[in-house]
Every structure is written in structure tokens, then in C-alpha cells.
Design brief:
The chain has 257 residues and is mainly beta. It is 2% helix and 37% strand. It has a single domain, classed as Immunoglobulin-like (Sandwich), CATH 2.60.40.
């Protein structure tokens, strides 16, 4: 396991991706470069557009819980791609997860949403870092795999530890085959002035060169029959120290500068 002395950054680039034969841009170790796509992808869980073919995979391989542990690749393997669109002002993620047992069925407002199988999208719009436990300085989107009534739900904390359903902040479609799950996500970007009690929050206009804080993680539960649920592993896209192995949901400094 590597422990670099930097945090993951996210940089929006020009050079729109429109053709499948566009040359790949090498991603720096400490910065994820997101290329603009002229034609935004359809959120269908397929990820077969040319813009995805030209994007670079990033790994989700740092075991945060238990810190320093190991996992069988058949139990969990994860990676993701990211692109953006000035036409929609959305950031798009394609998350590929190999999981031998998918634990879905969470229903808002049940407690402990992180104990189901969940993709966590940690996003700090201005890369300012700092505390975001009960405010919107950054977002910790916990995206569940849905239930019999909905395809997905998205949770984060607000003031007084109230759990807020942020499913309207993004679109998500999950498709699977032979234990491989493809999560396609289109994220609306809000800044730290977001008011969770308002229905008229302005969205951010994305532009070339924008830098944001970003990490992606996965909560893995291998026992669908247990009740209450309990998370077995927590795997992230950036290295953290043992003392910070579960601080992303509170402190954006671990995924931005």
C-alpha cells in the first residue's frame, strides 16, 4: 500500500472528447485530469460512449477499514473514470465495482446507510478543505444500490446530524453482469453556500481549469442476511494515515487542498 504525501485533486481540462480515437492524456499521480466531453453521456449504466473510452481509469484500492488490511480481488476490486460537460455543467463518473455479494435494499430514512453496499462520492467544489461534518463546505454523497421502489438513494448529514436525502443532486444508473457492477453518475455541482432547506439553490458553472477536491470510496458489506447491517470494509481512492482512516465524512482536507 502506498502512502504519498499529497492529496487527490480534480482538474477540469479543455480539449473536448468527441471521438473514440482521441489520444489519452496521462493522468498525474496527484491530480485527476477530467476531459470535457462535447456530447454528455447518457446515464444508462452502460458507459459505452466515446467520451468514456477516452477517459483514464483511476483505482479504488486503498483499504481504509480495516486500515492496512487486504482483500481478495474477487471480494472487491474498484476503479473509476471522470469527465465533465460545459453544456450541462455536470461532472460524470463511471465507477466499476467487482463485488461478490451486493447488499442493497436500504430505504431512506433508515439509520446507518454506510452499512449497506454504497459508493461514496466525496466532493469539495472549491478544494478549500476543512470541516464539513454538519455543513456544506463539502459533500459526502453516500449512493446506495436502491431497493424495490427506487434505483438509488443519496444521503449526507446536515445540521444537528440530520440525514438529508440528496437523490436530486445526481442521476445514477447501475447495471451488472457476473458480479461486475457499473455505476454511471451525473453530478450537479453546488458550492459551500448550499442551503439544504431551500429549493432554489444555484448550481456552479463549470469552466476549464477548475480545481475541486475529490475522493471516491466503497462501503462493502458481505452479509445480506444480517440485521442490523454492519460494514465489513471501507476502500478509498486515496491513501490516508491510520489516524485518518475514517475522517473523509468529516474533513475535506483529506481529499483536497
Amino acid at each position: 500500500m502506498k502512502f504519498p504525501n499529497f492529496f487527490l485533486l480534480f482538474l477540469l481540462l479543455t480539449g473536448a472528447v468527441a471521438q473514440a480515437d482521441v489520444q489519452l492524456i496521462r493522468t498525474q499521480d496527484d491530480t485527476v485530469m477530467a476531459r470535457e466531453c462535447l456530447t454528455p453521456p447518457v446515464i444508462d449504466g452502460r458507459g459505452d460512449e466515446a467520451c468514456w473510452a477516452a477517459a483514464h481509469w483511476q483505482t479504488i484500492d486503498q483499504i481504509w477499514i480495516p486500515w492496512g488490511g487486504t482483500m481478495d480481488p474477487a471480494d472487491f476490486t474498484g476503479r473509476y473514470k471522470v469527465i465533465w460537460s460545459s453544456a450541462t455543467d455536470r461532472i460524470y463518473f463511471l465507477v466499476e465495482i467487482v463485488d461478490d455479494v451486493l447488499v442493497d435494499g436500504y430505504r431512506f430514512p433508515q439509520d446507518g446507510y454506510y452499512n449497506w453496499d454504497v459508493v461514496e462520492l466525496f466532493f469539495d467544489e472549491d478544494a478549500s478543505g476543512g470541516d464539513h461534518t454538519l455543513n456544506q463546505n463539502a459533500f459526502a454523497y453516500h449512493i446506495t444500490a436502491g431497493n424495490a421502489d427506487v434505483d438509488y438513494e443519496v444521503m449526507d448529514l446536515t445540521a444537528n446530524y440530520a440525514v438529508k436525502n440528496y437523490s436530486h443532486h445526481l442521476d445514477c444508473k447501475i447495471e451488472s453482469a457476473d458480479g461486475v457492477y457499473l455505476w454511471e453518475i451525473g453530478l450537479i455541482v453546488y458550492n459551500e453556500d448550499y442551503n439544504p432547506n431551500s429549493s432554489t439553490n444555484p448550481t456552479e458553472q463549470l469552466e476549464i481549469g477548475k480545481v475541486s477536491g475529490l475522493s471516491i470510496a466503497y462501503c462493502d458489506n458481505d452479509n445480506p442476511d444480517e440485521n442490523p447491517k454492519s460494514r465489513d470494509n471501507f476502500i478509498g481512492s486515496v491513501a490516508v494515515s491510520a489516524s485518518r482512516n475514517n475522517s473523509h465524512w468529516q474533513d475535506a482536507s483529506d481529499f483536497g487542498t
